[in-house]
Structures are given as structure tokens and as C-alpha cells.
Amino acid sequence: MDDERWAGWPEPWAGTDADMRTVVGAVPQEVKDGFKYDEIPWQRFPHFYGPGEEIPGRLATLASQDAEAARRALGELWENLHHQGSTIAVAALAVPFLLRIATTGAPRLRASTLRLVAEIARCQHFGDGRREGLLQVAEDPEDAEGTTMCPVDWTIQAARAAITADLHLLFPFLPNPDPEVRSATAFVLATATGEMPRISSALHSRLAVEDDPAVRVSLILAIAQLAREDQDEHAPAWARALWSDAVQPLETRVGAALAWLCLVDDPVPDELRTLLTDPCTDQLNELFQRVPWLPPVDYYGSGLRRCIHEMLTPDVPWHSA
């Protein structure tokens, strides 16, 4: 990185055709709505295993009526766009189309498609159950994509902006009959960069009537993630009121406890520590693996255990627990 192109990286790239925020932001509405893949510069941005030109074909297959081919295409898109927890520049270009395919494509692939969108719009968080990490969205500004040297956080910002531009596609999924779709929708909405009050209000309204335990936790974490990004000073009190209310279902209290720990730097109160170390809480591990934030923390089924361990005993490595 010693030639003129790299001098002062990445600031000189801002606003250029090497800035994914600019590239994605320039995609016209009619191109997105009309699935006009040939008007997108895929060729300039490779995916993790090959040329970016392969992505539109996989998107088209995902949107097709061939159920088995669509399933395979979605698996390939996960591998191509979100490898080992990391995102890649071309993934941001796919976000507007993935959102539209989630609306019009096969219902049984909807939740996984939405989760992919959310993962593209979040930082690398494999194995991170810390208070600072669970709800983290932005990537280290110095982290660059190896092939194009695009700042990864610019890609994340581009994906988040694309999600925010298409909120109208997401809100109808909040009351979807499939609880996995409802959880995945909360996961996506939590990455938005604008209209925070509107999104938070919609999530709170859904939480008030939600009857699925895992979806309730997803809604709580989504509300907390938005509040963390928006520096909402009222959110910690809301989360504390939930986890300290013995009338609330246990999973709601535990989800709110995780949210509160991510929102504040305060020492862990004895009451909260007792809640999280209760044997009954440990029995919620399987349920919490249905909450989209938790599987990346530990894909072996101990996402909740690892979060609790890392949040309560940050100086003790998880592998020695």
C-alpha cells in the first residue's frame, strides 16, 4: 500500500466508486423494484469464492419457483456473501434484492433470507458474547476487505442504509405467522440507521402482543440494539424494569438482562447475577438458540451460556469455564 492510490487510505476513497455507500446509494429505485440485475456493477466486486457476476444468477434462482434450486442458491449466497462471520463489499449490492425476494419468494426460505440480510449489515461477531460485542453493529474502521481493500464498515453502512430505505418491505413481516420470520425481521430492523422512533415503536407494539418466547427475546434485543446505536438514555431503565419484574416470563427477564448489560457499564447487580446463574436460566439455552443474535456466539448450542459467562466473568476465558 505504498503507491498513490493507497495514500491516506481510506479517506480519499470516500464518495468514489470504491465506496460501497456511494455505489449502493446510487442504485435507482426502479432497478431494485424491477430486479434489473444487469444495471448493477457486480463485476467490480468479487464474492468470497469467485467473481461478483455470479451473484445475480443466484439471486434470480432464489427468486424462482424451483424450490430445490432456490434452497441451494440461498446456501450458496450465504457462503458467497457472509463467510465465517465476515461480510464482503458485493454483499451490500445484494441487500435490496434479497429484501424483495424475501417478500415475493418461497415462504419457507424467508427467515433465512432475512437473517442473511441482517448478518451482512453487522460486524464480525463469531464467538463474541461480551457486553460490548453482542449488540455491536459497526466494524473496526481499520478493517479492510482483503481483495478490494474496501473498508468493511463502509460495506456495513451501505447495507444498513439499504435496509433503512426499504423499511416498508419489513414492517409487514412483524405479524407474520412464522415465528422465525418475526425473529428474523426484528434482527434486520435492529440494523437500520434512520427512523429509529418509528422502528422502536413498531417493535414495542409487537412485543406487547407477542406470544412466542424466542420472538419476544428477539424483539427485546432489537429494541436494545437500536437504543444502543441511537444512545437512547431511556432504554436502560426500560430493560431493567423488565428483568427485575418477577411477573414476567423467565425468557423475557433473561433477554432483558442481556439487553441491559449491553446498554450500560454499571457493575452487575446481585439480583441480576442471581437471575442469570439460576439453574432454570440454564435450561433456556435451546430456546435462545432460536434468537438470531445467539447462534453466532456459540454454534454448538451454548450461546446463552457463553453470553452469561462472558458478561458476568469477563476475565475468565470461555474455554476454561
UniProtKB/TrEMBL annotation:
InterPro entries: ARM-like, ARM-type_fold. This is HEAT repeat domain-containing protein.
